[in-house]
């Protein structure tokens, strides 16, 4: 293996430490950052994610509220919860854990979160601001990817970045953030032709496909920075990324592992965004 590992756990710990220090400074000025997380239903994976977020808050000194609604909750009930949190000045961030049960219109719920409390960065105003290069809440996963690339000392400007995947939560915002840093960005997706060839020309390769081992060794340019966003549960019960790690690590300059890569950074960036929301709300 020639690639150096980008240690997501260590980087995430540093981001959380930064957040904790900011929380302490805000508390000294009478502001207690608070994140509210709404979980609808009993989805086991969602329960794990929400528990993780609440634990992260405790670790950073951020207050948290966990609101649980039954799987049968109506859209009106969920919107009422969001409205109550939106009106509550002691709550700085609102996060509705996705996916939502089928009877609820996800878009309508995200739209109901005030942009200044939208710490996931999914509301239309934040999406638009990101696109326009204005201050916003950057979605946690792609923001974490950028921090990981920066941690390698790579100057993103002028590099050819290839993003595989065009979802609203990962691929598209990752492409926007890379563009904002002056990368030349190619977005690949399920209809892309010559995908392997495009990837093989990438100085920075971000894989957000959702298919284990999708990125093979021959798709990696020697010395490239490879960011593996994928989380795929294998038949072996273990988590696998979108990248064939062993093969890609032979060629890449830097690579993120799965687990222990983008996942922890995503969680840490939520803490960063929550602190930012509290600071902005207080006008500090
Ligand atoms: P998604 O299913 O919404 O999007 C997948 C994208 O991959 C689509 O845009 C699609 O066009 C593209 N794609 C699918 N098949 C393809 C193919 N054969 N060739 C090229 N492109 C193809 O998924 P998502 O929400 O963006 O998540 C992607 C992966 O990242 C998943 O494994 C998910 O679990 C993971 N994820 C991880 C984190 C984290 O914190 N690490 C956060 C979010 C998502």
Automatic annotation (TrEMBL):
Residues engaged in binding NADP(+): 165-167, 231
SUPFAM superfamilies xrefs: Aminoacid dehydrogenase-like, N-terminal domain, NAD(P)-binding Rossmann-fold domains
Documented EC number(s): 1.5.1.5, 3.5.4.9
Known pathway: One-carbon metabolism; tetrahydrofolate interconversion
Reactions accelerated catalytically: (6R)-5,10-methenyltetrahydrofolate + H2O = (6R)-10-formyltetrahydrofolate + H(+); (6R)-5,10-methylene-5,6,7,8-tetrahydrofolate + NADP(+) = (6R)-5,10-methenyltetrahydrofolate + NADPH
Matches recorded under Pfam families: THF_DHG_CYH (PF00763), THF_DHG_CYH_C (PF02882)
Residue ranges constituting the Tetrahydrofolate dehydrogenase/cyclohydrolase catalytic domain according to the UniProt record: 6-120
GO MF entry, a single one: methylenetetrahydrofolate dehydrogenase (NADP+) activity
GO biological process, one term: methionine biosynthetic process
Residue ranges of domain Tetrahydrofolate dehydrogenase/cyclohydrolase NAD(P)-binding in the record: 139-280
Spans through the membrane: none
Keywords: Amino-acid biosynthesis, Histidine biosynthesis, Hydrolase, Methionine biosynthesis, Multifunctional enzyme, NADP, One-carbon metabolism, Oxidoreductase, Purine biosynthesis
Family annotation (HAMAP family): THF_DHG_CYH
Family designation: Belongs to the tetrahydrofolate dehydrogenase/cyclohydrolase family.
The protein, known as: Bifunctional protein FolD
Source organism (scientific name): Candidatus Gemmiger excrementipullorum
